[in-house]
Amino acid sequence: MCTCGKPDSTRRRLLTGMAALAAFGKLRPASAMAPSGGSLRQSTGDVMINGKPAAAGSAVVSGDTVAAGPGGTAVFTLGDDAFLLRAGGAVTVSDRPAGREINLESGRLLSVFGPKTVTLKTPLANVGIRGTAVYLESHPAATNICVCYGHAVMSPNAAPGRAEEVRTRHHDAPRRVFAAGRDPVMEPYMVTDHADEELVMLEALQGRVPPFAGK
């Protein structure tokens, strides 16, 4: 059960979150571990890269913004990461000195990552991860997060002191993060709209299998 918002646990969560974030910072940056190039592997409907129409086979590089129009979807890879962007979403993937950064301004994104520093950002939350899979839904009033498997720190922008560290094996700790003015600012939430079969597909693009699929 999440204890977000309870005074006696705030300091414990803060210390745990800060320690985990510091550990992430010691990892090698994405640019040192994986090639920067990638491609659009599958697309349906209207898909754009940097505002220009794109189709399967189009190149994707660090700093590009991939967007899917109404009724569209985009599956793309970049380095040792893979992404499924759903209709109405837009995401920018960039390699920074501190690691790879994923900015999801709006929409729904399922991602799998190789072992490196990655930060996922929405207008309401930051998620620091290493070698994991994450599903994000970014809406104006809330961000829904599912760390499908792996190690992550979820931090509400409105209350960084309530950061929560999770280690999950199979969709164990989904959270909804709210804008400022709501208490609790983060709470357990039943995230839907992503499936194990999609995670298997994304990992297969990188020659991997999810932990739940066995060896």
Automatic annotation (TrEMBL):
It comes from the Bacteria. Residues 1-34 form the signal peptide. InterPro entries: TAT_signal. Keywords: Signal. This is FecR protein domain-containing protein. It comes from Paramagnetospirillum caucaseum. The lineage of its organism: Bacteria, Pseudomonadati, Pseudomonadota, Alphaproteobacteria, Rhodospirillales.
